[in-house]
């Protein structure tokens, strides 16, 4: 029978309490924990056996008495109150308002674990999203309904890039996005940066923010992205809005998952992370997409900081298997003063080919992006050669590639945080930097496109 409080615990281990199983309870259900002074805490059932129940507490367990603590099982999972009025509001990691205003009036609640989307109900993402950032729009195009993570490192400007994308993201039809932003384990100054950036640009009224700061219980970080995605699903699939979800920092989320796994005594896998890290991340990333029954969509940009800039670390490695590409930030470009320091070669958008071309961006987009990738790859090889034999020993063609590489990084990749380039401007800059190469080196571009676009661009050498 629900509503009864059961007194007494078996043990308290960190954020987890163990008590005897008194009734038919289920995994993921919510429980209320009351200490001897009457203070109420909320927890979630983590594990159920024939004789015991493990509950993870959202908050500190300091002061919980084994004899005096009582627990009430509510018989339902953690839910989020949803409403269109969530836009412009700021919530904590558990979905409670922290902006000083009352909770939006709504009788609608949604399970934060979501409902799996039938794969046959999905529609293939094809609509180009213009972010105004040349390194993304031109070479790693973001498509509506895609999940495209940003792989960064400590100290790199991933937060600035994410804020710029949120400010500038537009569909080709000039439809705008509403944003859902979730921060997990970030410092207060980072949270303040995003709030200020959204206020200053005037987009805060179209943003739902969930903030689980570094001083919040680590267990809260496991709930925050699920609350954010629940809000996104409501706005997209029930209110037919185009939603852009930014999750930062997924590394902090995975660290919290590892911590809880260790407390539970589970057998660790790679680098101490639980063996179910892949499926847990997939349960978040796969909540992006488009469905046939709704005009809305969810586009997801998770941000993760690679420990020691190691792209083979389990977090970026498994993320890359689930998502449709990645935007990789490079420390070498950052040290050159280039913003955004998007690495030209490791970055990839697997859905780019289906969202560009005539009627979507421009007819020369595919060939131009392919040629820029090939030429920049050759530039990297020439730079390695020059480091060995010296630049003066290089051939004329190799020196042309060096000139192209410098111009590509300075003019194409680099732009200010306030510069919002159209896709036409991005492609024109791409043609301009290619003028540093002989015409016969443009072997990935159709001749008719070279005739049409290359002469229109001044040499600018």
**Count of spatially separate domains:** 3
According to DSSP, the number of beta strands is: 22
In the CATH hierarchy, the architecture of the largest domain is 3-Layer(aba) Sandwich
User: In the CATH hierarchy, what is the class of the largest domain?
Assistant: Alpha Beta
Q: What is the CA–CA distance across the termini?
A: 80 Å
Structural class: alpha/beta
Spans of at least 5 consecutive residues whose pLDDT stays below 50 are none
Mean pLDDT over the full residue set:
90
User: What is the count of helical runs?
Assistant: 12
Biggest sheet statistics: 10 strands, mixed
* Shape annotation: elongated
| Helix coverage percent | 25-40%
CATH fold description of the largest domain: Rossmann fold
Question: What percent of residues are in strands?
Answer: 15-25%
**What would you report as the Rg, rounded to the nearest angstrom?**
25 Å
